[in-house]
């Protein structure tokens, strides 16, 4: 069997889909399992040589380029090249684990006669492209993904641990960035502002962590990242910024003693790697989207928080009620 998984992004969503695919790899080691993903998140699946512990070939969907210039020659070329590469593989089955119109179109581009997706996808129009519509089962998105992929393939899947690629250069870089001291990574950013704990709180937390004898770092995707700089300023310079891409973040995370963050990619990366973590949830429901993995974890959410996935730009009232003292207590319980 040749299986194509479509889960283009983002980081946390790819990591939530990975346990189902890893389970399928364990159950059917002789099957070819490929993946369509945005280039930004490909390091979660394969190394620089295109080799990975779970998937075979990774097809790159340059969605950022497509969104910036939908009708440009470069975008059209990128789409046609992806279509040609997908059709060249003659997949027996394509499974859309994302549920958007874009991911559904990519699935149909593959030319696979069997194309499965949720009967209630994230974007309703996506369902029109599926040849097989499957009921969403399970509470957590990892459980839902395993049920979807398993039913589509005719294999009962139990999602478990995952293995991420190693890059030797990144491991050496991370060893230079953080020494053997206990180190906490503050993942202050998230997909939308309502999922972000206040900058002043992260700054105050950094001071408390420093008093516990920990080095404190804030990850940033680029040097001019305003949010990371604001956290450092709020900490009085106690925290420091570490700029890295996804490959570097994987290597850096492997050296962390602890992570504190919201419902974000780095938090889910820490969970996948077994790093102890304190997760701060507001509008999103941790029963559906919470961190899953082998490490110790504490998930904090105010009981009065209202579940919403509307990508609000204002501070979430429930998340704002989580105090620095409550987070410090959670950290102490883990350490």
For the record, what is the CATH homologous superfamily label of the largest domain? Glycogen Phosphorylase B
Shape: globular
What is the mean predicted local confidence, pLDDT? 97
First-to-last CA distance: 46 Å
Helix content: 25-40%
CATH architecture of the largest domain: 3-Layer(aba) Sandwich
CATH level 3 topology of the largest domain: Rossmann fold
Low-confidence stretches: none
* CATH level-1 class of the largest domain: Alpha Beta
Number of individual domains: 2
From the helix content, strand content and strand pairing, which structural class follows? alpha/beta
Strand ordering within the main sheet: 3-2-1-4-5-6
Radius of gyration: 20 Å
Tally of DSSP β-strands: 12
Topology:
Blueprint lengths: L1 E5 L4 H17 L4 E6 L20 E3 L2 H6 L4 H17 L3 E4 L4 H9 L4 E5 L13 E3 L6 H13 L14 H10 L5 E5 L11 H13 L3 E6 L5 H9 L5 E4 L2 H8 L4 E4 L3 H9 L3 E5 L4 H4 L7 E5 L15 H4 L3 H11 L1
Parallel strand pairs: 1-2, 1-4, 2-3, 4-5, 5-6, 7-8, 7-10, 8-9, 10-11, 11-12
Task: Describe the structure in your own words.
With 335 residues, the protein is an alpha/beta fold. It has 2 domains: 2-153, Rossmann fold, CATH 3.40.50.2000; 168-334, Glycogen Phosphorylase B (Rossmann fold, 3-Layer(aba) Sandwich). It is built from 13 helices and 12 strands. The protein has helices at residues 11-27, 63-68, 73-89, 101-109, 141-153, 168-177, 199-211, 226-234, 246-253, 265-273, 286-289, 317-320, 324-334, and strands at residues 2-6, 32-37, 58-60, 93-96, 114-118, 132-134, 183-187, 215-220, 240-243, 258-261, 277-281, 297-301. The strands form 2 sheets. Strands 3-2-1-4-5-6 form a 6-stranded parallel β-sheet, with helices on both faces. A 6-stranded parallel β-sheet has the order 9-8-7-10-11-12, sandwiched between helices. Strand 11 (277-281), helix 11 and strand 12 form a beta-alpha-beta unit. Helix 1 (11-27) runs parallel beside helix 10 (265-273), helix 7 packs across helix 8 and helix 7 (199-211) packs across helix 13. The chain is globular and about 60 Å long. The mean pLDDT is 97.
């Amino acid at each position: 069997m040749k299986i194509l998984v479509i889960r283009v992004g983002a980081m946390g969503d790819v990591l939530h889909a990975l346990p189902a695919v890893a389970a399928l790899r364990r159950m059917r080691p002789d099957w070819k399992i490929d993946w369509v993903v945005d280039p930004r998140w490909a390091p979660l699946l394969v190394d620089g040589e295109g080799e990975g512990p779970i998937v075979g070939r990774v097809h790159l969907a340059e969605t950022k380029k497509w969104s910036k210039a939908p009708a440009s020659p470069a975008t059209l070329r990128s789409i046609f090249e992806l279509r040609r590469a997908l059709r060249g593989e003659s997949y027996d089955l394509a499974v859309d684990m994302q549920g958007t119109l874009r991911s559904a179109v990519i699935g149909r581009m593959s030319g696979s006669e069997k194309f499965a997706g949720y009967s209630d996808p994230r974007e309703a129009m996506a369902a029109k492209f599926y040849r097989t519509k499957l009921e969403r089962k399970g509470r957590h998105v990892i459980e839902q993904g395993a049920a979807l992929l398993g039913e589509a393939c005719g294999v009962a899947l139990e999602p478990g641990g995952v293995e991420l690629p190693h890059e030797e250069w990144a491991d050496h870089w991370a060893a230079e960035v953080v020494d053997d001291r206990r180190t906490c990574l503050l993942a202050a950013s998230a997909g939308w502002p309502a999922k972000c704990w206040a900058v002043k709180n992260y700054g105050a937390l950094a001071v408390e962590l420093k008093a516990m004898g920990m080095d404190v770092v804030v990850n940033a995707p680029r040097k001019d990242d305003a949010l990371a700089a604001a956290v450092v300023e709020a900490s009085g310079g106690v925290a420091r910024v570490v700029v890295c891409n996804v490959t570097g973040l994987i290597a850096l995370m492997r050296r962390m003693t602890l992570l504190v963050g919201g419902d974000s990619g780095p938090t889910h990366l820490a969970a996948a790697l077994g790093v102890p973590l304190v997760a701060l949830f507001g509008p999103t429901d941790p029963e559906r989207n919470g961190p899953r993995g082998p490490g110790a974890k504490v998930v904090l959410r105010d009981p009065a928080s209202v579940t919403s996935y509307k990508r609000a730009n204002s501070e979430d009232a429930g998340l704002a009620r989580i105090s620095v003292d409550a987070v410090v207590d959670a950290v102490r319980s883990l350490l």
